Amino acid sequence: MAFGNFDSERAAPLSEINMTPLVDVMLVLLVVFIVGMPLMQQSVRVELPKTASTQKAGANTRVTLAIDAAGQLWLDERAVGEAELSAELARLAADPALELELQADRAVRYEAVARTLAQAREAGISRIGFITTER
């Protein structure tokens, strides 16, 4: 019973490279770089100069517009009707740095959200964001 051929004439040196250790080392390096990357980005310490100004330059005005499950509109926690909302949005649109944050209940129909977005665009508000919760 012979399991191998020990013929010395046909025996040639093994010329293949074993890739398993190379792949192991590369995976370890990949994990080290993935874990270390956030630390490298936060490691730069810069001492910023201090100013005498007490007001933030270019501070954005944020206004929250909420639509509850019943379809009621709330502008900065104050109930408003659709007609009053148009007038308020037109008044607020005078500020070019205004950011409108739209917060709609998940039960609200998209029709109400689209109508509110259209009112904001007609008033001249171009910076609109949606407030959501993480899953």
Automatic annotation (TrEMBL):
Alphabetic keyword roster: Cell membrane, Membrane, Protein transport, Transmembrane, Transmembrane helix, Transport
Subcellular locations according to the entry: Cell membrane
Pfam families documented for this protein: ExbD (PF02472)
Top-rank taxon, per record: Bacteria
BP GO terms, sorted: protein transport
Membrane topology: Single-pass membrane protein; Single-pass type II membrane protein
Stored InterPro entries: ExbD
Chief localisation class: membrane
Transmembrane parts of this sequence: 20-40
A cellular component annotation (GO) from this entry: plasma membrane
Any GO MF annotation of the entry: transmembrane transporter activity
PANTHER family in alphabetical order: EXBD MEMBRANE COMPONENT OF PMF-DRIVEN MACROMOLECULE IMPORT SYSTEM (PTHR30558), TOL-PAL SYSTEM PROTEIN TOLR (PTHR30558:SF7)
Protein name: Biopolymer transporter ExbD
Organism: Crenobacter caeni
